[in-house]
Amino acid sequence: MPTLLFQADRETLLPGEVLSGRLQVFVQPGQTIKTSGLEIYFRGKEYTTIVTGSGKNKRFYEGKALVGRSDLKEVSRWATRRIIRDGAVLPGTHLIPFKIHLRGHLPASTRFDGVGNAPKLSAKIEYCLRARLSESGVFTDYEARKAIRILGKPVPDKIAPRRVEPFAAHINRLRMWEKGEMTIGAKVVDTELFPGQKAGVILALKNNSGATPKSLSLSLKQIYRVKASNKEKQVSKVLSSRFFLMKHLHKYEPLTKQELKSLNKIDILARRCENRRAILHELDHAPQSTEFLQLVVPPHTAPQFQSKLIKVSHELVVKIHTDDLCTNPSFSIPVTISPRAPPRAASSPVDPVAPRSTPVVTAEMALPVAMARPISEESLRNYPEFAVQVVPILG
């Protein structure tokens, strides 16, 4: 049985970087391994599952798509000429170097299971290096696999503020009796966030209703959207939440019943326009008259990304809690959670454009077979991550 081992220089990379390493093929002297050629390739796949219903009505929907692909045809042809003679692998140890320019748009390696109640969503994205001796057995081929982790593509660390234009939220009591409206506006300090960073929202409010705002809440929501078997489902999960008491309660005094009855459509429209101008002025020039909400993004928050079957996005949800069983108005603000760029080593080349996914065999890669040295058993014991088990698969 031949031994195939992958040795990757780095197993965790960013999109656009270069994946390099060596493949070791070892055949014992006197052993004959028939094969038609050696294939080396890099693959990224995503798998999704949607579970709906329960009991006898439970249904499973599965999806699969290819997100990254690189066939090392030049390296495979060069290796086939070097290590295969007369349809058999030459005995001894052979080292085959390779380089792969990763595409700049690859989604990050991810995995989540059983998100939501009805339906339940599961998904994962995996990348791996694979090498196979084609037609090397009667029923199966011998191959080696090496898992590669792709991190999320970092974004520049810059401040991206955003203003929520003032809008009117209708207030009802028990969803039946109208109690006027509140005019709400907000300003987000930064919509480009990172795990562990603080998210801040400045809120301005004008109350023209019979309800009294008592407190505020700010939540970070993560939204999963998954496709599988022509079915698309979405679930959300609250990652973090905080409550705040209103600082300027004297400004939000409710209207009396007589004031509510005396309001007509013209008065409502006039007050709405006046409130919008006042809210814009407070947000830009009078921050001391506004409410400030702050929330820390959890350190293990999954970054935002989108692939063929999976989409992960985030929202900040602001909610105003009132009394007397009245409506609690709320609004959401889309934000972007991105990973920070890790410290980069000087020897790790980066190709931000990555024009090619298939490398070219250069002179430094074309090492003679005589120069290849086997990996000792002691080295394999000290570095068990290099020992990739040979797995037979169907030919």
From TrEMBL:
Pfam families: Arrestin_C. Residues 178-341 form the Arrestin C-terminal-like domain. SUPFAM superfamilies: E set domains. One of its GO terms (biological process) is protein transport. One of its GO terms (cellular component) is cytoplasm. PANTHER family: ARRESTIN DOMAIN CONTAINING PROTEIN, FI21816P1. This is Arrestin C-terminal-like domain-containing protein.
